[in-house]
Amino acid sequence: MARPIVAIVGRPNVGKSTVFNRIIGDKLAIVEDKPGVTRDRLYGRGEWLDTEFSVIDTGGIEIEGEDQIMKSVRMQAELAIEEADVIVFMVDAKAGITPADSEVAEMLFRAKKPVIIAVNKVDNLKRMDDIYEFYSLGFGDVVGISGSHGTGIGDLLDEVIKHFPDTSEEEYGEDVIKVALIGRPNVGKSSLVNAILGEERVIVSNVAGTTRDAIDTPFEKDGQKYVIIDTAGMRKRGKVYESTEKYSVMRAMKAIERADVVLVVIDGEEGIIEQDKHVAGYAHEAGKAAIFVVNKWDIVEKDDKTMHQFTQKIRDHFLFMTYAPVVYLSAKTKQRLHKLFPVVTNVAEQHAARVATHVLNDVVSDAVAINPPPTDKGKRLRINYATQVAVKPPTIIFFVNDPELMHFSYQRYLENKIRGAFGFEGTPLRMFTRRKS
Ligand code: GDP
Ligand code: GDP
């Protein structure tokens, strides 16, 4: 199920990052606990009344030059308009409506996306009166909040989730594998789509600034139905946008949310850079199946060790995604292209795989027998049973005597044993621990 995306836009210093941190709360900790996962706060996960969503603080998108603030706020708004499901437009109760606020309001108004105005810095009841002037910006939903006190955040989220799109209806049938291609500019995403489709349906150009209106592309290969999900990342907006990491991550978010399988495209010639990590990290956290596709293999100088060494580099950089297979190919010469789709189909199957409870428990019991959980302050973890409760991605709950005793390293040991028994190649596994004695 695609998680809705919430974007927070607004001028610098209105309190966007303060409120962002309030919304994601301790959710971020889940990500940061894991070695290898990036610590940059490009996005976070929020949850309100059992509804999960992604949230991005669009702040920090900055560009050089005069009229900087206005330009960067405009860019944030454009990004939010393109990719978010709900926009939280943050203003400052103390400052009142500024010209920059009015301009953003106009942009958002034209976009016809749900917009909630969060009037921040309403630190006490007296300030509540200050929120009324913001109704004049023309949006119906105006909520007074205080990021520093944490007040009004619940009211804000009530409004936000009311406007989420209905995702209960699947866009495509269960038998269709939805594939998204992500990666930084120029790694060859559009070329790869062309090569896959075998015809020039997507405009490719090495001149920055080419635009196209992307749409999903359904196709069939060897009796299996697929659809290539529109990746806004393929649209080219020009250097300023492309150089902004936060921007490219957010553009990929929506496509990732809608996909089953994410192809993380890497430039084989240029190698891996930090930016590759962020989009891949998002795919991992969104619980999608993933494949590393090393493109431009035609121009890489290689011997019999090169592939092995490159794979090792990928493993070192993406410690959190050791489950993802690596495919080497060339979109240009179509060399090794035939190797890709069998892998796509396989990881899609693994992503949707379900294991029987008794078989899972046999594997867990054996794992515990070989390597019992260490004691912690005289207490030892006891796993009563495990069961898979969901697919896409496979999600396992361990019922234990005390969830506090399940340490990260032991959980990873169990994950390795489970993968050893069932494969689950290409898909992340979610694991939860619940108390039950
Ligand atoms: P951003 O640039 O929009 O991300 O804003 P920040 O979150 O960095 O906040 C800017 C400043 O406003 C910081 O000094 C915050 O401590 C302060 N601030 C944030 N929220 C509140 C609030 O609710 N009340 C008050 N009085 N100050 C706040
Ligand atoms: P995108 O920005 O990720 O969509 O990348 P493009 O598909 O536009 O490709 C960027 C540049 O890389 C273009 O000049 C392509 O011709 C070139 N390119 C793409 N795939 C390959 C490949 O497999 N081999 C070589 N040599 N060049 C490629």
From TrEMBL:
Domain EngA-type G, first and last residues per copy: 4-168, 177-352
Assigned keywords, A-Z: GTP-binding, Nucleotide-binding, Repeat, Ribosome biogenesis
Positions with a binding annotation for GTP 2: 183-190, 230-234, 295-298
Binding residue positions for GTP 1: 10-17, 57-61, 120-123
Coiled-coil residues: none
Gene3D superfamilies: 3.30.300.20, P-loop containing nucleotide triphosphate hydrolases (3.40.50.300)
CDD domains listed in its UniProt record: EngA1 (cd01894), EngA2 (cd01895)
Designated gene of the protein: engA
Protein name stated in the entry: GTPase Der
One GO biological process term: ribosome biogenesis
Single GO molecular function: GTP binding
InterPro entries: G_ENGA, GTP-bd, GTPase_Der, KH_dom-like, KH_dom-like_a/b, P-loop_NTPase, Small_GTP-bd
PROSITE patterns: G_ENGA
Family: Belongs to the TRAFAC class TrmE-Era-EngA-EngB-Septin-like GTPase superfamily. EngA (Der) GTPase family.
